[in-house]
Design a protein that fits this description.
Blueprint: H1 7-13, E1 19-22, H2 33-44, H3 62-70, E2 73-75, E3 78-84, H4 88-95, H5 98-104, E4 110-115, E5 119-124, E6 127-131, H6 134-145
Antiparallel strand pairs: 1-3, 2-3, 4-5, 5-6
Helix pairs in contact: 5-6
């Protein structure tokens, strides 16, 4: 890792991601927010603890995060959702693929997904195509998958 590395390069090399939790009502933390967060995470991740850790792990490896996102998690009998908490630079790059994914969503013959932090993978006709920019991906979709 170099000193001049940008945020995207840094996060791309990291094996951990920050964790965001959605679904806990505002104001639930009361006068002791640190204690509340520790207890909330303990309840939310009760079945997902690392083998050697008596307390929940806040940072998860990216491949493990997908497994967590697929599970139904609850806090005080309310559904909560877990998601990677990326820096704004990365979140914007990932969101830039929204229009491409919207065009592909109704197509059952196409598989697609975000690749790494800022790329998109599209599998069509048993061929995998990897794109590093939304413009390249959109051009491919419009010319090869949904011709005008």
């Amino acid at each position: 890792m170099t000193v001049n590395m940008n945020v995207v390069e840094f996060w791309d090399e990291c094996e951990i991601v920050g964790l965001g939790v959605k679904g806990i009502p505002k104001g639930s933390e009361g006068p002791q927010p640190t204690k509340f967060v520790a207890e909330a995470l303990r309840e939310i991740f009760a079945l997902l603890r690392h083998r050697s850790s008596p307390t929940p792990i806040v940072h998860w490896r990216q491949n493990r995060l997908k497994a967590i996102q697929a599970k139904q998690l609850k806090f005080q009998d309310k559904n909560v959702h877990v998601f990677p908490d990326f820096p704004p630079e990365i979140a914007k790059k990932r969101a830039a693929y929204y229009d491409v994914k919207r065009l592909l969503r109704p197509r059952s013959d196409v598989k697609y997904g975000l690749r790494g932090l800022t790329g998109l993978r599209i599998t069509y006709n048993n061929a995998e195509n990897i794109f590093d920019s939304p413009a390249e991906a959109m051009t491919f979709v419009k010319h090869c998958i949904i011709p005008v």
